[in-house]
Write a structure and sequence with these properties.
About 40% of the residues lie in helices and about 15% in strands. The strands form six sheets. Strands 24-26-25-27-28-29-30 form a seven-stranded mixed sheet, sandwiched between helices. Strands 6-5-3-4-7-8 form a six-stranded mixed sheet. Strand 21 and strand 22 form a beta hairpin. Among the domains are: about 100 residues, Luciferase, Domain 3 (Luciferase, domain 3, Roll), CATH 2.30.38.10; about 110 residues, 2-Layer Sandwich (GMP Synthetase, Chain A, domain 3), CATH 3.30.300.30; about 190 residues, Rossmann fold (3-Layer(aba) Sandwich), CATH 3.40.50; about 80 residues. Helix 13 crosses helix 14. It contains 31 helices and 30 strands.
Length: about 850
């Protein structure tokens, strides 16, 4: 019953002149390829279908698992199974571990209802002796063939409402047991020249986007082994040139390798003329590379972006969007904010074969498929991906460009990476360990388990089997590597370790270990607290613990913890109170121009800690307002504040160029500082405001102390969005004391404790913030600076303005900028732009766009 299956013979009459061409691995030249015409493929598939029917106990409802390592074998036996009326399932590479291999086969055997596995004699050794499969080698099948009459097919049994699978594609199983995605003819037959493929045919893109697409359009197909392309990336372009290839595809990691090769001397002697800026130097058209999104469950690509990179250049995007859906399909994600990505439409699968639980979990009501990815849809309807939650840490490590890492893998708080340093270089090993730990601590606030390995295997698409790595870790298979790693770290600690000498140093070391949830033996008294993973929340917790443990009064401030980066310096500072210092040194060293960060209306510099941890190459200083310590007066005017900040700045950086960034309220102070510096004859090469217009709105002039309390508490993460909205309505005009009591009852108590706050400390913090608010009520900018940059995201909610109106207000910075103002969209909303979930994206925009444009 071939009615529900793919049918090659229906198109045979108009395809006979086309071919499937496969390049041997030994000599992949145009003239030495093996050639299989579509007519020959049809003939072979017909003959082989008769052989398959001779297998005993094989009914028309059985599944055939195709396990081959050759493109042509996969194509021939795929169509042979289809012609015989069976459902082919494309096998993926077996796990190398015997135990995992058996587990994988047992799972497939049950999932696919005891399939027959078709393979070759040369591949038989890949199957363990205890394999549950009934294995049939094609050589044996052909040797024992018997004459058979032409098969008659029954075309009468048609159930249009329930199409049977045309083929089954196995998911990668990178995060657990694989699933079998059922793809029907209706999904696959989508609406040109030759096609090139070099990825295994167990990948949905290879089978559907290349093989079936080319077949449907009547195009020649070229195949080359994966290892030939991986080992010689430029051969990919040469094949495209020689064979006039119109369509192929490649994963991101290979495109990066190709880019590196094109930039090397290897490209000099290539005669490439194919129709991104890099490829353009070799004759390519602007949109030769088309970004897309797809999964096995969507028959490969279902979303494409045909206007790349012109669209991204016009929008000043750093990353390419993936475009819009194919006709008939729909996607949904949050507008302008990162959210879950769902897809539905005629090409989306409707079930995981023989797995109703997985199927139920895969869909939302209304037929929306949960892709597992996250992203947002911009104002023009184009989808922008941000990755999968489980991949975010891996991306963070890759973005960090840590020397000593050549490959990375992350799963929750466990990091396995392939090292590129000498195995016994304990200094390099420890530096990599610290760099990874800082990156993960920033995102998870927890210490990761980190293990380097000599090799971390990836598939041709750059994927890692997370489930197998996790199993190897849990089973003890990697124990020897763990012991070696621990010993190298111990040697390094012995090399640099300086033990505490005084009681305060011992106490502080214990409390630091308690905050970081790590043993004291891994740090010395001169270890940099930020280098070993201290976060902004951790600093507040440490400050609170030390106040109690060492009986320190309120003159011991969080700023003291921020300014003194190691245990020895902090121990000395605990009993040596200094006068108010407006500068907090977040990073002391670096060869590039220092970056000065100006606090928001909350007055504290803590908000910048996570950002500073991402900056590897320049000193970073932050201002904090006066008034946090007991008895310390508030600022009385903007002029006084700017004078104090300017004086402190000149002590640490005597000459320009200067770079200043103000967050919200700090944007106003950054502008005023830049004016004073320019009046001194200094060059201010970068001055920017993060989400603050130059002119104060009437609504901000009306903010009460209670509203300041609620807004600042939300900014500090003490209130949920719901509680924030409710309290703004409920408490606008009530007295201070009652407002504090009501708010304390509604805040996240664990967060309150983590910040070391109580009613009195929170009230003092709000007093500082409100004093800043009051002295800025009548502010109107005068004069100008050379140039002003603006970072923008969603406005403060209680202002009640649209994003469009907010952008209009921000554009007023042009009034006080002598050169053209530059604008940069950033993730998140006003209170979360520098939060853990958005700070990495903000830093990338700051570094690669804003500072780079200004020559910094």
């Amino acid at each position: 019953m071939r009615h529900h299956h793919l049918d090659l013979s229906d198109k045979a009459n108009r395809l006979w002149e086309k071919d499937v061409l496969a390049y041997p691995a030994t000599n992949p030249d145009k003239d030495s390829c093996s050639r299989l015409s579509y007519a020959e493929l049809d003939e072979l598939a017909t003959l082989n279908s008769r052989l398959l029917h001779q297998l005993q106990h094989l009914s028309s409802q059985r599944i055939i698992l195709l396990h081959f390592d050759d493109h042509v074998d996969n194509i021939i036996w795929l169509w042979s199974a289809v012609y015989a009326g069976f459902t082919p399932a494309m096998s993926t590479p077996f796990p190398r571990s015997p135990g995992h291999c058996i587990k994988h086969m047992d799972h497939l055997n049950k999932l696919l209802h005891h399939p027959i596995c078709l393979t070759r004699e040369a591949l038989r050794e890949q199957f363990p002796e205890t394999t549950p499969f009934r294995i049939v080698e094609v050589e044996c099948l052909q040797a024992h063939s018997k004459p058979a009459a032409v098969l008659e097919t029954d075309e009468t049994d048609v159930t249009l409402g329930a199409p049977s699978p045309a083929l089954l594609m196995l998911t990668s199983g990178s995060t657990g047991a694989c699933k079998a995605v059922s793809l029907t003819t209706q999904q696959i037959m989508a609406p040109d020249c030759s096609f090139l493929n070099w990825i295994r045919l167990d990948h949905v893109g290879s089978l559907i986007e290349i093989h079936l697409h080319a077949l449907y359009l009547g195009c020649t197909q070229f195949y080359v082994r994966t290892d030939e392309i991986i080992s010689h990336p430029l051969k990919f372009l040469q094949l495209i040139q020689d064979n006039r290839v119109a369509r192929t595809f490649a994963p991101n990691f290979f495109l990066a390798e190709l880019a590196r090769s094109l930039e090397s001397l290897e490209a000099v002697n290539l005669d490439i003329d194919i129709s991104s800026n890099l490829l353009g130097r070799h004759g390519a058209s602007e949109n030769v590379i088309v970004p897309g999104f797809g999964m096995t469950e969507t028959c490969a690509g279902c979303i494409y972006h045909l206007d790349c990179p012109r669209y991204e250049i016009g929008k000043s995007y750093e990353f390419a969007s993936v475009g819009t859906c194919m006709p008939g399909d729909t996607t949904r994600a949050s507008p302008r904010e990162v959210g879950n990505l769902d897809v539905r439409g005629p090409i989306v699968f409707d079930s995981h074969y023989n797995d109703p639980a997985a199927t139920a979990h895969a869909f939302w009501p209304g037929g929306w498929f949960r892709t597992g990815d996250t992203g947002f849809i911009d104002g023009t309807g184009k989808l922008n991906l941000s990755g999968r939650p489980k991949d975010i840490l891996e991306a963070a490590l890759e973005e960090a460009e840590i020397p000593g890492i050549s490959l990375g893998y992350t799963e929750q708080v466990c990091v396995v990476y392939q090292n590129s340093y000498y195995p016994d270089d304990f200094v390099a090993r420890s530096r990599v360990l610290a760099a990874i730990a800082r990156r993960i601590m920033l995102m998870t606030n927890g210490n990761p388990h980190i293990l380097p390995l000599p090799a971390v295997e990836r598939t041709t698409l750059g994927k890692i089997s997370r489930s197998q790595l996790r199993a190897d870790l849990e089973s003890g298979k990697l124990h020897a590597e763990q012991v070696r790693h621990d010993e190298q770290i111990r040697l390094y600690q012995q090399h640099i370790f300086k033990a505490p000498e005084t009681l305060p140093e011992k106490i502080i070391m214990e409390e630091v270990a308690g905050v970081l949830k790590g043993p004291t033996g891994t740090m010395g008294v001169e270890s940099d607290l930020f280098e070993i993973g201290m976060t902004s929340i951790g600093l507040v917790q440490l400050h609170h613990r030390l106040q109690e443990r060492l009986s320190l009064d309120n003159k011991f401030s969080i700023a003291t913890c921020m300014t003194h980066h190691n245990i020895r310096g902090l121990a000395q500072a605990c009993y040596r109170y200094q006068e108010y210092n407006p500068v907090v040194t977040l990073r002391l060293h670096g060869s590039k121009t220092p970056l000065w960060l100006v606090h928001p209306a909350a007055g504290e510099a803590l908000v910048f800690v996570n950002l500073a941890k991402l900056i590897p190459d320049r000193p970073v200083y932050a201002f904090r307002a006066r008034g946090f310590a007991e008895g310390e007066p508030f600022f009385t005017s903007i002029e006084e504040c700017i004078h104090i900040y300017h004086t402190a700045m000149k002590k640490l950086q005597r000459r320009g160029p200067y770079a200043i960034l103000g967050y919200s309220y700090g944007g106003m102070l950054a502008f005023e500082l830049a004016k004073v510096l320019e009046a001194d004859g200094e060059t201010v090469q970068f001055v920017a405001s993060l989400n603050r217009p130059p002119y104060v709105s009437p609504r901000l002039r009306q903010v009460t102390w209670t509203e300041c309390l609620v807004s600042t508490s939300y900014f500090l993460g003490l209130l949920s969005r719901k509680s924030f909205r409710e309290l703004l309505r409920e408490m606008r005009d009530i007295p201070k004391t009652e407002a504090i009591v009501r708010l304390i009852d509604r805040v996240d108590q664990s967060r309150l404790i983590a910040l070391g706050l109580n009613e009195k400390k929170l009230e003092q913090w709000i007093n500082v913030a409100f004093s800043l608010q009051e002295m800025g009520r009548s502010y109107e900018p005068t004069g100008s600076v050379a140039h002003m940059d603006v970072f923008h995201c969603d406005p403060l909610e209680f202002l009640g303005v649209s994003r469009e109106e907010w952008l209009k207000r921000l554009s007023a910075w042009q009034d006080v900028s002598r050169e053209e103002t530059k604008y940069f969209a950033v993730q998140g909303e006003h209170a979360t732009a520098l939060g853990p979930q958005n700070v990495q994206a903000f830093y990338k925009t700051l570094r690669h766009q804003a500072l780079a444009v200004r020559g910094l």
